[in-house]
Amino acid sequence: SSAASDVYKRQKENTYNALKDEGFRIVELDFRSTAENFSKYFYDRISEKGYQVKCVSVYETPNNCAVYGE
Question: How many C-beta atoms lie closer than 10 Å to residue 68's C-beta?
């Protein structure tokens, strides 16, 4: 519904503003910030710099990670 959408937009804006007010650095990405997507992102960026990369692991918790490699 439109009312629910408006509430979501206000909450999102309020959250963003609160984080900025507290000094958080906000980095906008063109992908959803999952461990899987970050592992591919880091793999691609490191490879672009000319390094030979076997795989990249991004940990979500001490015992759980996403791994990307080609």
Answer: 19
pTM of the model: 0.71
pLDDT in tens, 26-66: 998 999 999 999 999 999 999 999 999 999 999 999 999 99
| C-alpha to C-alpha distances, 47 to 41, 43, 44, 59, 61, nearest whole angstrom | 10, 6, 5, 20, 25
37 close to 31: Cβ distance less than 8 angstroms: yes
- The Cβ of residue 40 has, within 10 Å, a number of other Cβ atoms equal to 19
Torsion of CA 60, 28, 14, 20, to 10 degrees: 90
Burial of residue 25, with CB atoms counted within 10 A of its CB: 0-12 exposed, 13-18 middle, 19 or more buried: exposed
Cβ-count burial of 15 within 10 angstroms (0-12 exposed, 13-18 middle, 19+ buried)?
A: exposed
